[in-house]
Amino acid sequence: KKNMKKQLLILAMSVLGASIGLAQPTLSFQINNVCFNNSGTNIFTVTVSNNTGPSTYSWSSQGPNCNDSLINVSGLSAEFQMNCCGMHTVTCQVYSGSTLCCVATATVIKICPPSVNITASNAWVCVPTNSSSTLTATGAQSYTWINGPNGSQNVVTPTALTCYTVIGQNAAGCTDQSQICIGVAQSPNVTISSSG
User: Fold this and answer.
1) Is the peptide bond between 128 and the residue preceding it cis, with omega within 30 degrees of 0?
2) With 0-12 CB in 10 A as exposed, 13-18 as middle and 19+ as buried, what is 140?
3) Which has the closest alpha carbon to 91: 10, 2, 3?
4) Average pLDDT over residues 30-34
5) 136 near 156, Cβ under 8 Å?
6) Which of 98, 99, 119, 160 is 20–30 Å from 129 (CA)?
7) What number of other Cβ atoms are within 10 A of residue 190's Cβ?
8) DSSP string, 108-141
9) What residues contact 159, with CB distance under 8 A and at least 6 apart?
10) Does the reported pTM lie above 0.90?
11) Residue 54, pLDDT score
């Protein structure tokens, strides 16, 4: 019943818009990267078109578990900062004077990146016994170790404290990276002496 009421309300506003010379508007997007950046900005621009007659606009955008931040409005365009990844619904309310006459909605998607993690079979290795540690990356579909192999595992034998970085990628091409450091300890010298 709620969906039917919402559809009837939008239909009524569309009829009202047509009666006062405003066509049903459409929305288009400008977005630079389809992958959500967990540590940076995620800005997109939406523009309303196909709207005739004098009008003003009220904008909002909502993600799956967040509200986006309206950064700037200029003419027929609005700029938003996405505050979470996933599918976002942008709503543009069109006013003629103080009368709400049309509502346009559209969706834009920022794909969630993978969450890459590294575990080590040994957090410390001993020298000069050449002991090793097996690093295992999880959370993505493919992995590339910096200065190392491709694949989820990397067997390392450091001779000094060394940090290892892996980049993980999901099916959409979105990436995340993680780092782990392996410590090095000197093997003790054991001597045996006998008395008598």
Assistant:
1) yes
2) buried
3) 10
4) 85
5) no
6) 119
7) 5
8) EEEBPPP--EEEES-SEEEETTT--EEEEEESSS
9) 127, 184
10) no
11) 67
Q: What whole-number distance in Å separates Cα of residue 25 and Cα of residue 48?
A: 6
Picking from 66, 93, 96, the residue whose alpha carbon sits closest to that of residue 82 is 66
* Percentage of the chain lying above the pLDDT 90 cut: 61
Q: Which long-range contacts (CB under 8 A, 24 or more apart) does 55-60 make?
A: 55/22, 55/94, 55/95, 55/96, 55/101, 56/94, 56/95, 57/92, 57/93, 57/94, 57/95, 58/92, 58/93, 58/95, 59/90, 59/91, 59/92, 59/93, 60/90, 60/91
Instruction: Report phi then psi at 14, rounded to 5.
Output: -65, -40
What is the separation of C-alpha 71 from the centre of its chain, rounded to a whole number of angstroms? 18
Encoding tokens for residue 98? 């103080």
Sheet strand arrangement including 56-62 = 56-62, 86-96, 99-110
Task: Measure Cα distances from 105 to 2, 59, 110, 152 in Å.
Answer: 17, 10, 17, 42
- Tens-digit pLDDT profile for residues 68-96: 999 999 989 999 999 999 999 999 998 88
Q: At 17, phi and psi to the nearest 5?
A: -60, -45
Taking the C-alpha atoms of residue 170 and residue 164, their distance in angstroms, rounded to an integer, is 20
Nearest to 156 by CA among 189, 178, 184, 175: 184
- Which residues are 104's β-sheet partners? 92
> At 5, which helix (H) or strand (E)?
helix 2-19
